[in-house]
UniProtKB/TrEMBL annotation:
<dbReference type="InterPro" id="IPR010987">
    <property type="entry name" value="Glutathione-S-Trfase_C-like"/>
</dbReference>
<dbReference type="InterPro" id="IPR040079">
    <property type="entry name" value="Glutathione_S-Trfase"/>
</dbReference>
<dbReference type="InterPro" id="IPR036282">
    <property type="entry name" value="Glutathione-S-Trfase_C_sf"/>
</dbReference>
<dbReference type="Pfam" id="PF02798">
    <property type="entry name" value="GST_N"/>
</dbReference>
<feature type="domain" description="GST C-terminal">
    <location>
        <begin position="102"/>
        <end position="240"/>
    </location>
</feature>
<protein>
    <recommendedName>
        <fullName>Glutathione S-transferase</fullName>
    </recommendedName>
</protein>
<feature type="domain" description="GST N-terminal">
    <location>
        <begin position="18"/>
        <end position="99"/>
    </location>
</feature>
<comment type="similarity">
    <text>Belongs to the GST superfamily.</text>
</comment>
<dbReference type="InterPro" id="IPR004046">
    <property type="entry name" value="GST_C"/>
</dbReference>
<dbReference type="Pfam" id="PF00043">
    <property type="entry name" value="GST_C"/>
</dbReference>
<dbReference type="InterPro" id="IPR004045">
    <property type="entry name" value="Glutathione_S-Trfase_N"/>
</dbReference>
<dbReference type="InterPro" id="IPR036249">
    <property type="entry name" value="Thioredoxin-like_sf"/>
</dbReference>
Length: 240
């Protein structure tokens, strides 16, 4: 669907069309899955793009919501909505009038969605944190941070990550999507943590979790995903 795009500069906010929802989108972030969903549903929306500053969200995002995070979604009535899972639920409930993403088992869908956001995502955040600490620590102290990171990987993060991926692969089974014959809320939410794991090469999905790797490939072949990438301003998770 056609979008009205703008940068985060205040003067350019005026180009946004009134009466449309607005996605405040940060490059190289989980907001990419919101772009994918909006494109899947052919929603007309405004798109405000923000660029990371020294790896972090710019202060302009805090003008939309005090947490200053992305994605931030403003509905057509001006209500500000945060958190990917809430935004995805709102968009599906509001715009999926043809029930394209209907679920057969709501409890299972909610379980997988919550697992992606509340269990797997924090594990990936922990790994990123210690990776960045080690990367930005000068020698000789980097030797200590590297040893600490390796210990955390061995005792916690890699084991928990693999356990989570085994769970996801078992839930996927022989289906093309977590939602069954077509994508659903759980598919949208699983993308970001799995993309992080794959892009940062923490685990070789193709070797260890081939069905998950195939699922990820199917996501990338969808026209709506490709349109979302074109409208976004970068999704290179290995550059964080």
């Amino acid at each position: 669907m056609a979008t009205t795009a703008a940068t985060a500069d205040a003067e350019q906010q005026a180009v946004l069309k009134p009466g449309l929802p607005t996605l405040h989108h940060l490059n190289h972030s989980q907001s990419q899955r919101i772009l994918w969903l909006l494109e899947e549903l052919d929603v007309e929306y405004n798109h405000v793009a923000y660029t990371r500053v020294q790896g972090r969200a710019p202060p302009e995002l805090a003008k939309i919501h005090p947490l200053g995070k992305s994605p931030t979604f403003v509905n057509k009535d001006g209500r500000v909505i945060i958190e990917s899972s809430v935004i995805i639920s709102y968009i599906i409930d509001t715009y999926d009038t043809s029930h394209k993403f209907a679920v057969a088992d709501q409890i299972r869908s909610d379980e997988i969605s919550a697992f992606a956001s509340a269990t797997l995502a924090p594990i990936t955040s922990t790994e990123i944190l210690f990776e960045l600490i080690h990367k930005n620590t000068p020698w000789p102290f980097s030797y200590l941070t590297g040893a600490l990171r390796s210990k955390i990987q061995n005792l916690f993060s890699m084991g928990e990550m693999r356990k989570g991926l085994r769970y996801l692969q078992s839930e996927l089974g022989d289906e093309e999507w977590f939602n069954g014959g077509h994508p659903g809320k759980s598919d949208f939410l699983v993308t970001f943590p799995v993309d992080l794991i794959a892009e940062r090469r923490w685990i070789d999905l193709g070797k260890e979790f081939p069905r998950l790797a195939a699922w990820r490939g199917r996501v990338r072949e969808r026209p709506a995903w490709k349109r979302g990438l074109e409208k976004g301003n970068g999704y290179e998770l290995d550059k964080l």
